[in-house]
Amino acid sequence: MDMQDCIIRRIEPRDDSAVESIIRGCLVEYGGDHGGTAWTDPMLGHFSQVYSAEGSCYWVAEDSRGRIVGGVGIGGLEGTDGICELQKMYLLREARGNGIAGRLLKIALTFAKGRYRSCYLETLPNMTEAQRFYEKHGFVRVSEPVTVTEHFACDIRYILYFD
Hints:
By secondary structure, the protein is an alpha+beta fold. The protein has a single domain (3-117), classed as Aminopeptidase, CATH 3.40.630. The protein has helices at residues 16-29, 47-50, 100-113, 128-136; strands at 7-10, 57-62, 68-76, 83-91, 118-123, 140-142, 156-161. A hairpin with a 5-residue loop joins strand 2 (57-62) and strand 3. The N and C termini lie far apart (34 Å).
């Protein structure tokens, strides 16, 4: 897949089921199809609604054929002040490793920097490629959660402080 062919845009209602399918597929791939992950999120197929709230946004990567190949969200982190969460960043296997994730992350962090002081994320222990990706982009691993989230199985945590 040529990353130049992908466009990054805000999610629309017509994208909801494709994004849900990508996330569920990735969770199955990494053994995260159980409680304590996005697998049990009741709003998983409704991101165009969820991310319409103030301080939130979800972007999708769409290939030249109009197929959604990945996405990422930013949302406020309940119980914190000035911290957002990088949420639901998943890509199809064929969309990984070619710059699309970096483009998605850049857009999400640019949005977040104008609204929050730092960005937090949680991931699964076996998502080592994702961990390397986050570290490459300046996220620092932290041992304790900044707040309690419903994703208790995602016990690898990172934070990025904005300048």
